[in-house]
Amino acid sequence: MTYVSVGDMARLFQLRQHSVDLQRTATRLTQEATSGQVADVAGRVGGDFTALAGLDRDLSALSAHQMAASEAELFAGSLQSVLGTVQDMASDLAPTLLSFATTSAPTLVDAAASDAREKLFATVGLLNTQVADRHLLSGTATDRSPLAGGQQILDALTAAVAGQTTVTGADAAIQAWFDAPPGAGGFIDTIYQGAPDPLAPWAVGQGEAVAIDLRATDPALRTALRGLATAALVDQGILAGDITARAELTRRAGEILTGADGGLAALRADLGAAEARIETAQTRNGAERAAVEIARTRMLAADPYETATALEAVSTQIETLYTLTARLSRLNLSEYL
Amino acid sequence: MSISGALANALTGLNASARAAEVVSSNVANVMTQGYARRELGLAAQSLGGVGTGVRVTGITRQVDQFVLADRRLSDAEVASQTVGRSFFETIETALGQPGDSRSLSSRVASLESALIAAGSRPDSEARLQSVLASAQDIASSLRSLSDEVGSARTEADRGIAASVETLNQSLGMVDRLNAEILAHRSAGRDATALMDQRQQVIDRIAGIVPIREAARANDQVALFTTGGAVLLEGNPVTIGFTPAGLVTADMTLASGALSGLTINGMAVSARDDGLLGGGSLGAQVQVRDELGPEVQAALDAFARDLIGRFEDPQVDPTLAAGQPGLFTDAGAAFDPLLETGLAGRITLNALADPDQGGALWRLRDGLGAATPGQVGNATLLNSLNAALTAPRVPASGQSIGAARSASGLAADLLSRVAGSRQDFADRETFATTRQSTLTSLLLENGVDSDAEMQQLLVIEQAYSANAKVVQTMDELIRQLLGM
Q: Of A104, A317, B103, B317, which has the maximum CB count within 10 A?
């Protein structure tokens, strides 16, 4: 006789399968609920990690750009204050020097020339400033100070104007020395110690670079130094004995300094524009960072409400399974025989 | 005469009941045994010269649904095959790492980009140049360890093939011996069902390795064939041949002769997954060793080639002479297109930039071909290195759709490829596993049902007591006769 019967092992096998499945689901849901992120990232992105990897790469690049931007901000800010102080010193001294005429008293001229000498040394010191162990105006040679020193300038100039007896001659000689091209033995060769190449632009944002290529050889700075040096040379003792020529030369120095003011203002304006660009880039970086983080979270987030609900359902199912297992195991003919 | 006939009939009935009880007890004892087929007693009415003479036990049969068994064996092979593929890709995917993980390949490429940006802002900082060097070294070591993973996966597959072939040969030998024993038992009239249980279990073991079909032959013998068409056992078992290769490296392939193929009785057969011996775990392991592994290796090599090529360009680093290696090298030398296989396992950082190998950090800033350090604030080369790393470039080799990608994009593509393959295999594995569970369930339903056996025992009890009553009554009748 053929029976239609169901083997015992079949039920055991099925119950065990269900139990394993439910336990696995419960574990996954618990992990998602506690971490807030899906357990199977590959499943969520459909096996295509391009977008997720792109977002992560953007986040790490943004951090680097932020760092570069804040360093650029520090550099530009320090440079701005250096140029400001130089400009102030020049514009303080210029009116005094301009007031001299050929009839001015020699003592006043000497006093002004001495003041100019102090201001020249101070300006050279400012231009040699280091910020965060980096010289601001040396170009790529940030480990060397850009200018050799105030006294060296005066010594070199003294040699350059030796033999000049007229104001125009001395002025022309001083100008020729300051404006000498590289290789002619003038300012750029003997006093400037930095590199001929400017600093590379700072990468402050994605595809955005801010360049500050100011070196101590800039014409506006040289003009300011020339003005101060011309007056300081009077203190050094050129055109000795010729009181009117000395007064005239000091007045000439005042004219140069007034002319330099315009150039310095232009430099500061350019630098201000660069600072503004850096600040804009920093703001943009901050906003972009927030947006990328939101996008990334949204891509991988596990909805806590759904996860909690599903976890509740699975717990109920597991309990039901346990009850069933207990009941069915008692449903046995041998219990009743 | 008829009284003794009745007595004889009753005795056959008692005997049949006793045999039935024995079968029931055997079933109940084996209710938890894996691979035990429920026994049923065959009974037939006995007749001698047209007169009924009681009941005859025709034999004990095993209740196995052969069709469900055959399907389940095929699904076993399918599950084993997909599992091998899935776990291979899972290993590679774990080694590659997901984008959020700082040790993943794509994160390391992103770290190099960030380090270059930071160094470009302060080229005079030795710490930043050191972090550029460290990031680049991390990428190279990632690629080398990935290449090692692929190599060891292939070595494992080769070893797995050897083990499978060994198991296969042994199992075929065992089935052949069991065939012979079953024949001997049947000829002697003894019960061979336990041996048939054993034979079924051995064949189940073979079924995971290669998908097989079992064909019944006369006298309870079996013949075995693979679904690919090869004969495994027909009268005599075949011998599968394979030589393990020991350590498998990237350049060793089946075509180069460094790796062994499969032979049946000395005749070479295709070792592909769709060949004579394919479709089970054996075919899948051959696929990992000969197709999937080399494909992943080629993808890694293409990535390494692209990375090396980005920096080996005199337009990126003007101090490099033509033919001189750039930041990344092929074990110290420039890239050679003929030696692309295994490149990912040999990629290293140029020693000229590494202080631990006699180089100097300033070469990262001033150029690998520079003889002396240049200006400390010079960020030109660092910026151009970053531009080279992020520039979209069409990869020179490997499977690509011809789109220009940055280095981090290529790393993401690599991960997506591996993850996609893993998901394919996982999906197929899930489907095959579900099918396997269903068929196993169906097969187990045919197994021992203790309730049915208990019911049967009630009937047997009744039958036995009825037959015993008949014996008693016959005995009474004879006594009455004798007492007359």
A: B317
